[in-house]
UniProtKB/TrEMBL annotation:
<feature type="signal peptide">
    <location>
        <begin position="1"/>
        <end position="17"/>
    </location>
</feature>
<keyword id="KW-0732">Signal</keyword>
<protein>
    <submittedName>
        <fullName>MBL fold metallo-hydrolase</fullName>
    </submittedName>
</protein>
<dbReference type="InterPro" id="IPR036866">
    <property type="entry name" value="RibonucZ/Hydroxyglut_hydro"/>
</dbReference>
<dbReference type="Pfam" id="PF13483">
    <property type="entry name" value="Lactamase_B_3"/>
</dbReference>
Amino acid sequence: MCRWITLLALFASPALGQEPSACIALAQNGAQVVRVAFGDPLPQSTVRLRFLNHASFALETPGGITVITDYTGQIGNPDVVPDVVTMNNAHDSHFTNSPDPRIPHVLRGWGPPGLPARIDETVGDLRIRNVTTDTRGPFGEGARANGNSIFLFEVAGLCIAHLGHLHQMLSADQRARIGRVDVVMVPVDGGYTMDQRAMAEVVKDLHARLIIPMHWFGPKTLAAFLAQSAGRLDIVTAGGPEVEISRATLPRRPTILLLDPALIP
């Protein structure tokens, strides 16, 4: 059975170099989980994640950069203007054609017809990369090469991956280009993206220390995904939408972190 726990075993870790990518390397270290509030000052070397809805998260860096993933225009507080938004276009619940014009960096995970999106940008203390994967319709129709982007966020020594609308097992080349993953946001619906058993294998292959389910369409779907991890992973319930994560410490075992979605107040 999965062990339901409220505290993580923590241990210290050294910093990694930043060239050319801090995440394309092996590591044995990682991240502490703490409940917090959006917009509060962050300790050095700490990031904040807030689960907004569906596949959308707000990520805040210690340098004050805010990113919204799978941005649809609906984040809650209209006075919050993110520095960066990322989008995928498998469905309209993952993008908008009318992003807030105040947002300085709008990163689309799809390229021109027949071409992959190529993203490698640094905004403040945050580096953002992508690795493209192929997509198809919910019944296998309409296959599209490079239709999805896995977005990779490198900040404060952490390597954070958002799998987007993943439809395929990762190739060896894709896995190598992703690099190390400390934290992964993973779609677990079991239908529109991938079968839950296959998605659990993707998660296992990534070796992330912290696994955050998203795109789960209700508690039964989420519970079914958790059952795939029985005996392998610990499960932590955050009791809210937000956590702070630091690379100074990581759970000793790969751990699923359950966040309750809520828009920015």
